[in-house]
Amino acid sequence: MSDSTPAPDFDPLRVLVANSNAHSRSILRISLRAVGVRDVVDAGDADAAVVAAETGRLDAALIEQDSLGLDGAAVVRRIRRTASQEVSRLPIVMVAAQASAVSVAAARDCGVNAFLLRPVSSALIKVRLVTALTDARPFIRTQVYVGPDRRFRLATHGFPPRRFGDDTPPLAGWPGRR
Fold first, then answer.
1. Residue whose C-alpha is closest to residue 137's, from 70, 71, 91, 88
2. pLDDT per residue over 166-178, tens digit each?
3. What CATH architecture applies to the domain 14-148?
4. At what angle do helices 101-110 and 72-80 cross, to 10 degrees?
């Protein structure tokens, strides 16, 4: 967000905070309130998080990647696989204590819209919420993956597109392309 962009109004948002640790949920709730989110739904375990997503008419979710009794990736996959299109497309920010290549790839591969590394601040939460809420990547639904397109940059770098469904037109005579 640039200085000329008006600040988003987070007041009407309803955001899920899923973390098995009550203190961590409290920190996230306070940070969300600091950026203007007034309606925060708490979930202390995986089942409560999924039920809240399915029934809570949420606008976004902050889900802890790994906390005792809560496997964030499994929660995200369950939400993404729900029958309701509205629920399965819920903007999700994965919150994690570490940003190893493995943990970031696991978050991306389960279908999150954004990744937030601890320690958190209100400013970082605001940036990640805006990222998740304005994510314009195509939504993919296959047998093995449901979520936003895992590719953030769709530039071709002078090469022809590699996947069916890319928005760029195929080169004439390129093998494997229609």
1. 91
2. 554 444 443 443 3
3. 3-Layer(aba) Sandwich (3.40)
4. 20
Residue 21 clears pLDDT 70, i.e. is over it: yes
pLDDT tens profile 128-167: 999 999 998 999 999 999 999 987 655 555 555 555 555 5
| Length of the chain counted residue by residue | 178
Tell me how far the alpha carbon of residue 77 is from its chain's centroid: 11
Question: What is the bridge-based pairing of β-strands 139-141 and 146-148?
Answer: antiparallel
Is the pLDDT assigned to residue 19 strictly greater than 80? yes
Residue 137, phi then psi, degrees to nearest 5: -65, 145
Dihedral sign for Cα atoms in the order 160, 162, 164, 168: negative
Give strand ranges (E) for 74-158: 92-96, 114-117, 139-141, 146-148
| Nearest to 89, CA basis, from 54, 52, 46, 119 | 54
Contact 65, 98 (CB under 8 A): no
Q: Where in the chain are the domains?
A: 14-148
